[in-house]
Records
---
Amino acid sequence: MKTSILFSGGKDSSLSALLMEPFFEIELVTCSFGLLPNGELAAKTAKELQFPHRILFLKKEILEMAYKKIIKDGFPKNAINYIHEKAIETLASYPEVKCIADGTRRDDRVPVLSISQLRSIEDRLKIQYICPLRGYNRKTVSILAERYLRIEEGPSESTPKADYENELRELIRQRHGEDKIRELFPAHLQSHVLSRKGQQ
Amino acid sequence: MKTSILFSGGKDSSLSALLMEPFFEIELVTCSFGLLPNGELAAKTAKELQFPHRILFLKKEILEMAYKKIIKDGFPKNAINYIHEKAIETLASYPEVKCIADGTRRDDRVPVLSISQLRSIEDRLKIQYICPLRGYNRKTVSILAERYLRIEEGPSESTPKADYENELRELIRQRHGEDKIRELFPAHLQSHVLSRKGQQ
């Protein structure tokens, strides 16, 4: 079964691809608004991981709406979930796309779609949706990632990652400056995958 | 990482084993109260699938408590979940068991532990818990099972399966007869795995 995995170049989406690889025909898809070279960054990681990759450009209106949400809310959750849902809708609008996957873990809170949101997306867009890490906790994911991936980790402002947050941060930087980013986004660690480790 | 998968010989636990096989050292574990030859039945399937297998005998008190629950409730959900939780506790009490998995899917309702129940089990019993199919819906699981497994399917009263329900049904048969089983358990299809299909 051919599956398109939403791919940021981070640990979770990379590991999702590895876990699905023996059973699915994988393509990695990185969404970008064209504000930062997200797509190119992820393409490099995808090549290291030896998966086919493509960049999916999303409409700027989606980023503008997400911007409105984060400014109104004062926190990123709803804005990021909104981009995630619109990314899935955009990807599912391609007739060859029948199955979409993402790297959300059991403990993730953003971006996460509820089971009823997933069912609605599957029914409405005529696709199947898979979250291969949804039954894995953070610790197990870390153990697997450590074993199968070479990773660099660091604070989100300095570690390059092609996720939705990255371009939303950039837009806020352009319009409000650095301080506003620190106000809106909680500090956290990002992971950026470099390549596979040899399997034992 | 060595993982013990709770194994009924059905489609979901068999597929869980296949999905985890490339990344984990798998053993299949079938729980039994000794009321039916559950363990032997599952051992045969495990052998066909080429996984190590063992039978874990559970204390009869657990079945008695589950019996009380189903008679009081008039439906099996809480009784089955109770056996599931006690099975995990029993398995986790072996010091060599560090990681336990089961075959629950995204759409399953019984037996399913909530995220907070899973966290409590992990903290209390010092294990990691994995549900490799938790991010897969029924349709995707069916497609994968159809591709990788030879299966027989039929009504639950005539299809042999080594799950918790089987022995609880048997106890009710012994004490109340066939009609009571039909009253307490909704009719549904069971799957019994015969062997692997050749991978493409």
Note: The helical segments of chain B are 11-20, 38-49, 60-73, 77-92, 115-125, 138-148, 164-176, 178-184.
---
Amino acid sequence: MRYQLYYWPGIQGRGEFVRLALEEAGANYDDVARGKSGIEKMMAMMKGAGEKRPPFAPPFLKSGRLVIAQVANILFHLGPRIGLAPKDEGQRAWLNALQLTVTDFIKEVHDTHHPVATGLYYEDQKPEALRYASGFLDERAPKYFGYFERVIDKSGGPYLLGRKISYVDLSLFQLVEGMRYAFPKAMKRIERKIPKVVAVRNRVADRPAIQAYLASERRIAFNENGIFRRYPELDK
Amino acid sequence: MRYQLYYWPGIQGRGEFVRLALEEAGANYDDVARGKSGIEKMMAMMKGAGEKRPPFAPPFLKSGRLVIAQVANILFHLGPRIGLAPKDEGQRAWLNALQLTVTDFIKEVHDTHHPVATGLYYEDQKPEALRYASGFLDERAPKYFGYFERVIDKSGGPYLLGRKISYVDLSLFQLVEGMRYAFPKAMKRIERKIPKVVAVRNRVADRPAIQAYLASERRIAFNENGIFRRYPELDK
């Protein structure tokens, strides 16, 4: 099977959570919008001229005849197919709940620089961003990470589900990497209380397929168009 | 099978999307936190003393031995069991993508009154709320509703998946009801362009099980502690 991933070509963004899973699994995939006329192809599918089930927004994945949107939904579909999720229904539901908690976390990260409107520039909402980021770094981020820490503790570790890696571990890696990029000072403080989360991050970073991916040009660098943005004034 | 729903007892909130599905299906369920010592029971499960898979937040559903968190995940689990989702994997993935788009919409509705921090009162973030709500009503709400309109159009209607009702239609009903409550003026304007969405709302409202539910005391009234809040200053 060869998958087609559709996502904005210049950023890691939400697409990165899918890329990491495909890369760890060694799956065959095209990062369509990074290829020739890629954005046009992506937009055409969203406009849905020929599409009975047009996605609301990227990322979406073409898997055979299916077009699947929403990160957690894509990973739910891919997981058992590429060896990154259990097959048992109850375990999959638990994994999906964790991934949807990642989704919620990501939205709040996004809102640290866009608390008023996605359609405005960061520069047009800086005072609001400062207020938002403060509460986010003091309360929300520690709460989310603390929850994942507790889940690893309860599973017995080293991964969120226990002994076997799953796609949510890759997402947790990305959350730590992104938070380190965007909020290095606050993250140093937060990390003191989440050793098991950091250990997941380190295990994922050590995996050969992930190392190869991170060293390749397929890994887009963090930048100030993505979800995790380094605006030093927001980091305290 | 008897289900146990855990959600805050004084609001419709995110739990309402699950309640509507259980009610439409005529499923047996307890709304646990509305019963005696209910909140304590809910909190105990979240603290997870005896729970290997503690939920991050309500709502969550106990279904047999499983505890399932996150609205879209709960509905994904329930759907085929209570006759509100197809059994085909591809159709379920499409339905799930739609429901996750509802999830995104709900979060933005919530942020109209809490754009800065969930931990603060609305009164502490009124100027920001005014800015947020303006962009939300001008752009985001019409975009989401317009998307669902297009989906119904493509499916052939009258429901989102076509001829058969599914749980996402019940969620769409709730979105229309909530938006009418919170933003009656703006919604009047928005509804002019989404006749098929309004038709779904009407069909759902006409269903006997939903009528009985809405007339019962099990349906909590909209109020200013929930997600949809009527603050006239935000409605334009």
Note: Chain A touches chain B through 47 residues (CB under 8 Å).
